[in-house]
Design brief:
215 residues; two-stranded antiparallel ribbon; 8 helices
C-alpha cells in the first residue's frame, strides 16, 4: 500500500529462531504523549455493535462517505474513496465499518490503513465488498450486469452520492488503478504466497482492473 501512497502504521515481518515468520505492527493510537482518541463509523453514526454482523449490515459506504465529507471535509472523503477502490482491486472483501477509523483532533483525519487483506482468495464466491454501496440499492452497473463485479462507474456513482465531484472521482480512480496495475505483479511475485495462490491473486487483480476501467 505504501507503493500507491497510503498512510500505514509501521509494520513488517520478523523471523523467529525456529523459522516461523511473525507479522508485527506498531500501534498508531499510542504516542509518547499518551493515547490518540479515535472513532469508527459505527460510533459516529450511533450504531450499537450488538451482533457480529452489525459491522456489515447497518450502514452503507455512501452513508460513511457522506459522514466523512460532513465531518472531515472533501479531501479526507476522497482519500477514503481511494481506499475503498483499492480494497476492491486487491480483493479485500472485508472492508467493514470497523475497518475504517478516524483520529480525533483538529482536524479530524483518517487513521492509517489497517486490516487490508486479500480475503477474497480465501472467501471465494462471497461478496466482493463488505458493505452495500447504498442503503436501499446497489450501484447501477453492479445491479444491471449481475456478474458480482463493480465498475469504475459504480465508484463514481458512490462518490457523487456523497457530494464528491464525478470528474475528480473518475480521475482518482484511473490514477489509482494505474498505480496498482504497475505495482501489483512484482509485489505478488515477491510475496510469500504459494505459487498457485500467486497466480490466482494476479488473475483476481487483473480481472478487477478491467472492471474498474469501465467508467
Amino acid at each position: 500500500m505504501l507503493q500507491v501512497g497510503f498512510d500505514l502504521p509501521t509494520c513488517g515481518l520478523i523471523t523467529l529462531q525456529d523459522g516461523h515468520r511473525v507479522f508485527v505492527i506498531r500501534r498508531y493510537d499510542r504516542t509518547a504523549d499518551g493515547k490518540r482518541h479515535q472513532w469508527d463509523p459505527m460510533q459516529a453514526l450511533g450504531i450499537r455493535n450488538d451482533a457480529s454482523d452489525s459491522k456489515y449490515d447497518l450502514a452503507s459506504y455512501s452513508e460513511v462517505l457522506a459522514l466523512t465529507k460532513e465531518r472531515c471535509g472533501t479531501a479526507i472523503a476522497a482519500r477514503l474513496l481511494d481506499r475503498l477502490v483499492f480494497s476492491y482491486l486487491v480483493g479485500n472483501d472485508d472492508h467493514h465499518l470497523k475497518s475504517i477509523s478516524f483520529v480525533l483532533g483538529q482536524p479530524i483525519v483518517l487513521a492509517p490503513a489497517y486490516d487490508v487483506l486479500a480475503a477474497s482468495l480465501y472467501n471465494q464466491g462471497g461478496r466482493a465488498m463488505a458493505l452495500k454501496f447504498f442503503p436501499d440499492r446497489e450501484p447501477t452497473y453492479h445491479a444491471e450486469m449481475g456478474n458480482g463485479h463493480y465498475s469504475g462507474s459504480d465508484f463514481v456513482e458512490l462518490a457523487s452520492s456523497a457530494g464528491l465531484g464525478e470528474k475528480a472521482a473518475a480521475s482518482r480512480i484511473r490514477r489509482l488503478a494505474g498505480w496498482v496495475e504497475k505495482a501489483a505483479p512484482d509485489l505478488i511475485r515477491s510475496s510469500y504466497l504459494p505459487d498457485e495462490m500467486k497466480a490466482r491473486y494476479q488473475s483476481l487483480v487483473s480481472e478487477r482492473l478491467q472492471f474498474i476501467g469501465v467508467i
